[in-house]
Amino acid sequence: SRQSTQYPFLSVYKNDVFVLPNKGGDVVKKYTRQGDGTLSEAGSFTAPSASTPIHMVVESDTKAFISLWTNGKIAVVNPTTMQLINYIDLTQYALGGDGNPDPGVMALKNGKLYVACTQTSDGFTSQHPVQVLIIDINDSNSIVSATDSRSFWAGGIDEPNSLFVDESGDMYIYCVASYGFGGPNQK
Predict the structure, then answer these.
(1) Distance CA 101, CA 181 (A)
(2) pLDDT value of residue 187
(3) Residue 143's pLDDT is what?
(4) Per-residue confidence (pLDDT) for residue 23, from 0 to 100
């Protein structure tokens, strides 16, 4: 066992396990499975202070994406070396005027990175429609914003599998509707 934060998110790629501190810190740790099945620490990435690295998806041996919930960016890192490549700034896509779309859980499909945005100002409620940012990682990270006013708050920040692609290639997004605190009109 390894000591970690209270509720870490895990991302697994080949023999590597990445532990994201969720709301409990800024250091993403990498562990590699050894021949005997144990994990040894193999590196780390320190995100900007109080940026809340909340979810990670790995595209390849040289590129992975980490959503930074409280600063409105996606960190692009090399998962082998755990070195920062660059940031994808999403702040211009904030719907609420606070300058942060609150990027959360993500999924990769057909060369595009889908980012569920919570659009919350207090960490529990949102008054903005569901928003998913679609980043074309093969086309200079061009971004399209898709919204749906049938619900509020895309993806669950405490549910890393709340945005996923099934075995048929269909994508599903769980929308939390402000955890029930948004009023009777939120579904």
Answers:
(1) 19
(2) 74
(3) 97
(4) 80
Structure tokens at 106: 């993500």
DSSP 52-82: -EEEEEE-SSS-EEEEETTTTEEEEEETTTT
Identify the bridge partners of residue 9 per DSSP, sorted by sequence position.
20
78-136 confidence digits (pLDDT tens) = 999 999 999 999 999 999 778 999 999 999 999 999 999 988 878 788 888 999 999 99
If we measure between CA atoms, which residue out of 79, 68, 60, 131 comes closest to residue 103? 68
- Coil vs helix vs strand at 95: coil
Would you state the pLDDT for residue 153? 86
Strand partners, 41: 31
Residue 42's region, left for phi above 0, alpha for psi from -120 to 50, else beta, is alpha
* Cα distance between residue 138 and residue 51, in whole Å: 26
Q: How far apart are CA 183 and CA 171, in angstroms?
A: 27
Coil/strand/helix, residue 108: strand
